[in-house]
Amino acid sequence: MNNRAGWVAPAETEPAARRLIDFLGGHVGKHGRLAHSRWFNPVQVIVSVAMLFLAGGFLSKAHCTRGSINPDTGAIDLNWSGNRAYVSACYNDIVPLFAGRGLDTGVFPYAYSWQEGDLTRYLEYPVVTGYFQGFMGWLARISYPPVEAISKHLVPVPMAGWYFVLTVLVLAILWVATVRMACALAGRRIWDIILVAASPLVLVHAFTNWDILAIFFAVAGLLAFSRGRTVWAGIAIGLGTAAKLWPVFLLGAFIVLALRLRRFRSFIIVAVSTAVTWLVVNLPVLLAYPEAWNEFNRLNSTRSWEWTTIYAVAARLTLFDGFDPEGAEVPQILNSVSLVLFMASCLAIAIVGFVGKRQPRVAELVFLIIAAFLLFNKVWSPQYSLWLVIPAVLALPRWRLLWAWMAVDMFVWPVLMWHMHGSDNNGLPAEFLDLVVLTRTGLIVVLVVCVVRQMLGRSEDTVYQAHNGYDPLAGPLQVSPEKAAEHVQMREGRVSKTMWHANEKENA
After folding, report:
1. Which among 170, 190, 209 is the end of a domain?
2. SS3 of 106, please?
3. Residue bearing the bigger pLDDT, 8 or 5
């Protein structure tokens, strides 16, 4: 049963949803009316769930915002005594980097530096994230005095803790906006976005870092493109790329469709506006602080593998000790292997996109590209898994499989924290971490295989079925120009009621 707005009832396609609905009272009868309330429709329900999980995400990190009053100075200092960040798994980068990157000093983020041995270090984040960090640092500094005065008589809150609270507030607003945009992208399968709103990964990683910023811009870019606003799509993707590199991978999905259709105008507009936007926001820092601007690239080229990558697991489980000579300052071979594997994956994704009988959906291509990047990259910080949530839900809305992956992925974090506690402090043995990481990797590979099978027509595509054979995200890159124009008009609410109701009758 579809409701008046054309939304697919989840009980009709998802066994997991069907069981929950049976528990809550059963399916809607033939005379039932869905989503007719102005204040309680699917969008409001999903946004409400998103806010509930954001609150859980804040509480999971709140223990790391506590402070104690310094008896000598009377100031409130950050208190992470007793390995609190690892014992309670509340660690996040936001709190320690407030002072660690000079955000408490009032200095422009990229003008601040410090020494690590003979090396001069700078802020290691792309510029949009750096601008955001600097602005939130300024806001925390000017608003902290009354907070400090009040909290001394209640629960001591250090300035770093207040900075975290303000940052969380803004990131939460951006996440709610992101979920709302995802509802628009889901089209008639809007209820699939409940998996985004109620993702277990939000509980542990919404506020581990600043990743929501890039996710917001990436989803905004997808929404703009789906509505045919290619310049705005490029601006959003450019800002996202300047916040975190991965949103530029969206262009990979668009170029596959453009090559398949031999229609390049919309792709060129998006690509050019992405490049111009990225250059405009980067140029001031690049010219004024070139070494600081390059810190992101320098650090990513010189660092070794991260704890939860396939390379780290291989090193812990076997005699493998890396591709590069011991003591190498730059892991050049590891960098090359990681890059080659990712590029080979992108080539394979493009081939699958070309040979399939039907046009691949944008979400399918985006999911595969980001998944390949995470699987083969030498750095997979646990919060990076947030990047995959919305593309995965839009590409393959199989609720049980997605829940299984996200639940396992969530447990990577506490297991990693427990392992990092160290064997001297009863930390968890590496074998447990390896088991969880390999399980996560296996589930993502299963998702990849399912998406590829779907693209090749080996399994049904419920998204295409729900949308009369068009891709809700393709915008101007639909199968035919006529279908693209019709789709853009529909997204903007300009399709006649006659056409809309005719489509509904065909789907009834």
Report:
1. 209
2. coil
3. 8
